[in-house]
Amino acid sequence: MTALARTTSRRLAADPGLRLAIVILCILGIGDAGYLTYVHYSGAKALCTFGGGCETVQTSRWATLDGVPIAILGLIGYIAILLSLAIRHELARAAAFGIAVVGFGFSVYLTYRELFTIKAICQWCVGSAVLMTALTVMTTVRLSREESLSELSETTGVR
């Protein structure tokens, strides 16, 4: 194996900084979605420091999907992405990416509903949308880096 191939291989290998950033974002997302789940089931009013739209959004018909609070769906998504980091396999990386993309798409839809249908903004929902957007970018980078590493090892015959 040439020095260039070794350097490239190391650079493309799983970046612990990227994994740590994904862990931190997932923990923040779990906190956000966990809080909104608590608010839903406790009947408490969401703490909303910017404009007071949280209560309007949380009590809207778009706060649930077939009776399931949207916050629980987010909570499951964040936990699933976090758990995928414990599995070192292409399928786990692809699953994390897929979950993040679905979460991102759903966040875009819900943000649209907030802006144009509900006409109120929930800071917790915006925070979750920002986290899921960042997770989508990071899981994309993680997936592409690992795929590049796999391609490199197939080309060079080095694992």
Number of domains: 1
Beta-strand percentage? under 5%
For the biggest β-sheet, the strand order reads 1-2
What is the H level of CATH, i.e. the homologous superfamily?
VKOR domain
Listing every helix as H and every strand as E from the N terminus to the C terminus, the arrangement reads HHHEEHHH
Distance between the termini: 11 Å
Indicate the percent of residues in helices. over 70%
Unreliable stretches (pLDDT < 50, length at least 5) are 4-13
Mean pLDDT: 87
Multimeric status of the protein: single chain
The rough form would be described as: elongated
Whole-number radius of gyration?
19 Å
CATH topology: de novo design (two linked rop proteins)
Give the gist of this structure.
The protein is mostly helical. It has helices at residues 3-12, 16-42, 54-58, 70-84, 90-118, 123-156, and strands spanning 64-65, 68-69. It is elongated and about 40 Å long.
Walk me through this protein's architecture:
- By secondary structure, the protein is mainly α.
- It has one domain (16-147): Up-down Bundle (de novo design (two linked rop proteins)).
- Helix content is 75%, strand content 3%.
- It has 6 helices and 2 strands.
- The chain has helices at residues 3-12, 16-42, 54-58, 70-84, 90-118, 123-156; strands spanning 64-65, 68-69.
- The protein has a two-stranded antiparallel sheet.
- Helix 4 runs antiparallel to helix 5.
